[in-house]
Amino acid sequence: MIHRTAIVDPTAHLGADVTVGPYAIVGPHVTVGDRTGIAAHVVIERNTRVGSGVKIGYGTVIGNDPQDLKYKGEETWVEIGDGTIIREYCTINRGTSATGRTAIGQRCFIMTYVHIAHDCVIGNDVILANGIQMAGHVTIEDRAIVSGLVPIHQFVRIGTYAFVGGGSRVNQDVPPFTKAVGNPVHLYGLNSVGLQRAGFSPDVKLALKRAYRLLFNSDLTVSQGIARARIELPQVPEVEKFLTFIEASQRGVMV
Fold first, then answer.
1. Angle made by CA atoms 241, 247, 251, in degrees to the nearest 5
2. CB 13 within 8 Å of CB 44
3. At what angle are helices 202-216 and 222-232 packed, to 10 degrees?
């Protein structure tokens, strides 16, 4: 299952039924789970843990040094969860000493030419469309969708079930369950299509809509809106997640 032109370092460990295509390189201290497919000309440079059933597309480079001038050669890692698909010509850098790792969850779909920089954390079931360029320390939570050609500023967070439209420049946090579009980017209400597809109940969707209106479509400040929401709205986990995400924002939340 390893092509005769591929190079696999003696310290690498490949699971059962792994395929390694022509001219691929699997470097030192790389672990690859069962049934993973590594296409031609892929480079997994070093210190990378790849789960089971992962598909890595032609020309992708994973586990190379972080593009950070503070990096001085510390031991850092990339981790990729089971069932994730990474298409052609993506680049995924190792972490820095700040966190020690760049992490991608399970069942993600990462399309062509995506760059994931050092210390980024991607949750489960995330979709990243073509040409997304992520700076360091970005966090994208479970089931978020980011459309194509989106640059994402360092330390930005994109919340669970959020949707970011194509070509948007994301320089502030995107709250969970919301839709952000444009350049400059703005919020345009809840990600109602995503919530419907995910099967959220009408009561949860109504509570989230009321919370959104209190924070972003009223005369209240954000802190006043959060306080009112906790008093007036049903205590459902989704609303609390929405509120705590905004409270914890360091870069500020787009409006």
1. 115
2. no
3. 150
Which residue matches tokens 């789960």? 51
**Is residue 136 annotated as part of the catalytic site, yes or no?**
yes
Residue 32: what residue type?
Answer: V
Residues listed for the chain: 255
Domain ranges in the chain are 7-137, 195-247
Torsion of CA 63, 67, 72, 74, to 10 degrees: -30
DSSP for residue 198:
H
Burial of 34 (0-12, 13-18, 19+ CB in 10 A): middle
Catalytic residue selected from 41, 115, 118, 137: 118
Per-residue pLDDT band for 75 (boundaries 50, 70, 90) equals: very high
HSE-up of residue 177 (Cα within 13 Å, Cβ side)? 25
The pTM of the whole model exceeds 0.85: yes
Active-site annotation holder among 27, 33, 115, 119 = 119
Question: What is the SS3 assignment for 146?
Answer: strand
Average pLDDT of the segment spanning 56-81: 98
CA angle 66, 30, 96 (to 5 degrees): 20
What residues form DSSP beta bridges with 32?
A: 14, 50
DSSP sequence for 201-225? -HHHHHHHHHHHHHHHSSSS-HHHH
Can 13 be counted among the known catalytic residues? no
The mean of the pLDDT values for the chain is 97
Beta bridge partners of 117: none
CATH of domain 195-247: 1.20.1180.10
Architecture category of domain 7-137 in CATH: 3 Solenoid (2.160)
Residue 119 bears catalytic tag = yes
**Given 136, 159, 194, 225, the catalytic residue:** 136
